[in-house]
Amino acid sequence: MAKKPKTYSIQRELSWLNFNARVLQEAIDQSNPMIERLRFLGIYSNNRDEFFRVRVATLRRLKALQIEKDEFAGFDPSVVLKDIRKNIEIQEKVFTDTYQQLVNELRNEQIYIIGLNEMSPEQGEFVEEYFRQKVHPILFPIMLSELRDPYSLKDNSIYLVVILRNSANPLAENYALVKVPASLISRFLILPRKDNCYHVLLLDDVIRYNLGEIFLPFGYDSFDAYAMKFTRDAELDIDSDISKSFLEIMAESVKQRKRGAPVRFVYDKSMPEHVLNKLLKKFKINKDDAIRGGGRYHNFRDFMAFPAIGDAKLYYEPQPPLRHRDLPPHKSIFSVIREKDVMLHFPYQTFHHILDLLREASIDPKVKSIKMTLYRAARDSSVINALINAARNGKSVTVFLELQARFDEKANIYWSEKLQEEGVKIIKSIPGFKVHSKLLLIRRKEDDKYVYYSNISTGNFNESTAKVYADDSLLTADETVGKEVNQMFQLFEMPYSPPIFKKLVVSPYTMRDHFTRLINAEIRNVKAGKEAWIVIKINNIVDEKMIKKLYQASDAGVKINIICRGICVLIPGIPNQSENISVISIVDRYLEHSRLLVFANGGEPLYYMTSADWMIRNLDHRFEVANEVTDPGIQQELADMLKIQLADNCKARLINQAEVNKYRRDSGENKMRAQVAIYQYLKARSAN
Q: Which CATH number does the domain housing residue 274 bear?
């Protein structure tokens, strides 16, 4: 009997870096409008910051604990950290070259991102007045010699290290830190137009230009300023003190995050070495840590909000969200979904349908209760305001608000307290588990009996992200589904007494086994000569057991097509293991976030939507929901949309062993850009 080959996989951190390289490709891709390319640099930078705060921080902890290869998914954390550094260095050069190229290209469009030496005297006067009125009042410099607690410096913020001198005594230097307040005012100042051109000055340079306004009163008359930034370990250490509420524990943990160890320190490489050494000593950073000399400007994530200036051709063509054809204005949504299921596809279709449903429920006298899970809410959340309004109208409102949603903990603590003040019942978070399922349940009294209306989604109930995240959201009046969604809310309160579900597939209880059984069924079918294939659309595929099962199915002859936006440690195309698996990743205008699974089932396909990726955390340590989509019309719609994505030859990258992130592009005229084609497909359906 031939020996089976080893199971191949890519290290997950390196796979994530490959994903972020796809984002960087969008900044390079000249088929994208110029300002959108600039914004992709911002997305890339923001992603990388989070990667350091979470994944690199975790690896450093493992390295410090001397976790060995076999204890960490077969990879040595020390080796992975070295590989990350090499990869980041390569990407950083591409990033810098791309930014400079974009700056030059924008000049051809009469948009100039300028430095201090490129301003006219009139522009200089404007900058001085702007500084006096808008910037100076919110600056609070710190003298480096007086800084007692380096942890008081904010994570992921830009600081200018200012060298202060007096011409009467040029050898006596002093040093100050000035935080660039980009969280309070725009990072970009648009100067008065000159010769019909736009001139943009970064806030960093607004401050540099006016350092005399800050420090002349203290006897200094010569200044140099260099940028620096910390990235800190963002993993929360959760206290186990049973005398505290989980809300208190999370609030304290979020405060402690500010004191996380630096995992990266970046600085302007033109900074004098003696100044850099002084900073490293002050901040207790040694040169073995992840320190990097870079350019004059940092925190490119702010470029996601680059101002809307210049010609319309510099931006994507507008794709205004569509109304769903079955949800016309001025008609009760309950009356529609009582008759048939409705699937919404964001951002192609408007999230206002969900807000309309909540608004209708909040004032409908027949509605008795509303229950919802919230993972990440918008800053000024209309969803939460609708829930508050429902409570004020006498409805029983229950919310599970996940306090452990990374980087949204502070906001969710605030919303939790606000909702409780308004009489909304808050189900407490579950230590050790996150509730990642996206559920809305409305109970309505009709003809002397209670009827459930459910909304199951692949994405958050967040009107802001619904404009850029591609998600699917099912509205249904299916009685069994409604009862089981209600059981989910009971489960959140008593997680150790799981009910038996007939229609919902729930992790951490049944999801892994359920999809394993469906894969096994495809293996049996292919061996029996029946139709056998699987289509998986997912964000991340990391779980070793599920990957081995897919390899087993591939080896048996099951054709498997995967659309994976992010991490994919599975390697397709390996003989006798994954030669029947193909993987593409689509990175484009919208962030692909929906998770769909389709199984051939011998010619009667089964369609599932889910909130869960195939990662250990999703399958074993989170409350996730998958739901079979049974409406034939919606099944066809999903099949058509998946077919469009699998045919993408503009923004699809091939994920394979030989070439990383190679575009799958057709040199002919039959261009298929999935996100444009899906919008046109749904637009045509809404018109029929």
A: 3.30.1840.10
Confidence band of 617 (pLDDT split at 50, 70, 90):
very high
**CATH number, domain at 383?**
3.30.870.10
Nearest to 225, CA basis, from 165, 283, 135: 165
**Structure token digits, residue 357:** 């449903």
Own/partner contacts of 491-494, CB < 8 Å, gap of 24 or more, are 491/623, 492/373, 492/400, 492/427, 492/430, 492/435, 492/623, 493/427
The answer on 652 and 510 residing in a single domain is yes
CA distance 60 to 17: 17
In a domain, 322, yes or no: no
Q: Which residues pair with 198 in a beta bridge?
A: 111
Place of tokens 């990879």: 75
Sign of CA dihedral 546, 549, 555, 556: negative
Rounded to 5°, the CA angle 621-626-630 comes to 170
Last residue of a domain, one of 500, 526, 544: 500
Adjacent-strand bridge partners of 163: 175, 224
Domain containing residue 362: 333-500
Average pLDDT of the chain is: 89
Task: Tell me, yes or no, whether 345 and 463 share the same domain.
Answer: yes
The residues annotated with a catalytic role in the active site are 436
Domain end position, chosen among 257, 287, 314:
314
Which tokens go with 205? 């340079």
Cβ–Cβ < 8 Å for 346, 682: no
564 Cβ contact list (under 8 Å, min separation 6)? 536, 537, 538, 539, 540, 541, 583, 584, 585, 655
Model confidence over 399-408: pLDDT tens digits? 988 766 555 5
Examine the domain organization and report whether 278 and 362 are in the same domain: no
The 3-state secondary structure of 334-357, one letter per residue: HHHHCCCCEEEEECCECCHHHHHH
Peptide bond into 347 cis (omega under 30): yes
Residue 540 near residue 568 (C-beta atoms within 8 A): yes
Phi, psi for residue 452 in degrees, rounded to 5: -100, 135
- What does the pLDDT look like over 217-266, one tens digit per residue? 988 999 999 999 887 775 544 444 434 444 444 444 444 445 556 678 88
Do residue 364 and residue 461 come from a single domain? yes
d(CA 564, CA 536): 8
CA distance 351 to 345: 9
Tell me how crowded residue 86 is: count the other CB atoms within 10 A of its CB.
11
